[in-house]
Amino acid sequence: MTHLDVAAIKADFPILSRTVRDGRGLVYLDSGATSQKPLPVLNAEREFYERHNAAAHRGAHQLAEEATIAYENARRTIATFVGGEPDELVFTKNATESLNLLAHAFSSATAKAAHGRWHGDERFVLTPSHNIVVTEMEHHANLLPWQELADKTGAQLRWIGVDDNGRLDLGDIERIIDDRTVILSFTHQSNLLGTVNPVADVVAAARRVGAFVFLDAWQSVPHMPVSVRTLDVDAIAWSGHKMLGPTGIGCLWATRELLDAMPPFLTGGSMIETVAMDRSTFARAPQKFEAGVPNIAQAVGLAAAVEYLERIGMHRIAEHEHVLTEAALAALGEIDGVRVIGPTENVQRGSAVSFTVRDLHPHDVGQVLDDQGVAVRVGHHCAWPLCRRFGVPATTRATFYLYNDLNDVTSLAAAIREAQRFFKVA
User: Are residues 162 and 247 in the same domain?
Assistant: First the structure.
């Protein structure tokens, strides 16, 4: 049993009432890729465009003033949601851009230092004697930027492995994270395995050597209470579209110390203090990292999404997803030939459930599920090395959210059995 009124919640999401594939009711189990949007979010964006649309931080007229107020109020709402302050929150287009912003700070500082033009924090200057640490379960968005940084600077890229149960193998962490480690960047919750990582244990190893710690939180912020103060990290990144918000808006929360020390990612209008023909100076964060006209309506929509989630309660949402995940693991465990990739015990685990079906390619499974009205994700989920770790080319992945219920779990299991019947592997 759960404590959410899922029927009432579903009524707030117009798309969930539509039919797909010959009039079948939609069972949406792909929130890990992108979540659906409730009416308050859709209405907030529409109202902004209908009544307040103007460029924020520009102009002297009333609409520009209203747009600026709406934008900065959104920043305050979203920062408070994760326990931060408004001037610690930078708007980006998604978590990928947020993580690239962090990586760029080090490559920019290192490049400037090579010409004697970096006069900031020396910790941002990397050499071949330094190393960067990630984990084997990273989404490509938190792997490729660090690969690129290592290539540009000569630093070594290291990673913490994953055991057969889909948990981080921390047995060798003190060797992997050593006194030459400058950056540790890792996922809070795996988008493929569902694993919720032991943040405190991993962070402690990095703090012991004075490394920067960054957290990819795009699968945790939408699904559980997250406090940046409790996490004790230097920065976290997440995307709006995975937490009921619009596409095209992401967030980077970082400490004031880090934001002040980092060079900007993009340059141009709005992020400047002074500009001359031969040099410029930059505004304080967060404006320093928000060049050009920002995604104002999207920020307003994301703030509405945050308010919607807060009204329901993140603890209640997490508990609800826990019940659904428990039911899904049990249901899949009863189907012969189904292998769950990731923890099969519902402990320190999120609602992403990835699986394979014996003798069937995940794409074939996904096609039959789609024919049954069940929307899931298939592929390597931007975690190709992790798929290799478990010896699979891809998986089928179901992800649960606040608008799902136990009937959706039943529909998923029935659709998997139908796939086995269709391909005659049952």
Answer: yes
Q: Are residues 213 and 352 in the same domain?
A: no
CB atoms within 10 A of CB 359: 12
**Host domain of residue 335:** 6-30+313-422
Nearest to 110, CA basis, from 132, 127, 125, 100: 125
pLDDT over 70 (residue 375)? yes
pLDDT tens digit sequence for 144-195: 999 999 999 999 999 999 999 999 999 999 999 999 999 999 999 999 999 9
Q: Quick one: pLDDT at residue 50?
A: 98
H or E segment to which residue 168 belongs: none
Asked about 251 being catalytic, the answer comes back as: no
Contact 332, 413 (CB under 8 A): yes
Q: H or E segment at 355?
A: strand 352-357
Question: Could you tell me if residue 116 is left (phi over 0), alpha (psi between -120 and 50 degrees) or otherwise beta?
Answer: left
Q: How many residues does the chain have?
A: 426
Domain annotation covers residue 305: yes
Separation between Cα atoms, residue 254 and residue 231, nearest integer Å: 12
Judgement on whether residues 287 and 319 belong to the same structural domain of the protein: no
Cβ count within 10 A of residue 243:
22
Are 15 and 69 in a shared domain? no
Q: Is the pLDDT of residue 1 over 60?
A: no
Number of domains within the chain:
2
**pLDDT tens track for 321-357:** 999 999 999 999 999 999 999 999 999 999 999 999 9
Q: How many CA atoms lie within 13 A of 25 on its CB side?
A: 8
- Rounded mean pLDDT, 373-390: 97
306 residue type, one letter: V
CATH number at residue 403: 3.90.1150.10
Contacting residues for 298 by C-beta, under 8 A, at least 6 apart = 45, 240, 245, 246, 247, 248, 249
Give the confidence band of 59 by pLDDT, cuts at 50, 70, 90. confident
Q: Over the range 110-123, which residues count as b (16 or more CB within 10 Å of their CB) and which as e?
A: bebbeeeebebeee
Q: Which of 382, 414, 425, 426 is catalytic?
A: 382
Residue 39 forms part of a structural domain:
no
Residue the block writes with tokens 């012991």: 208
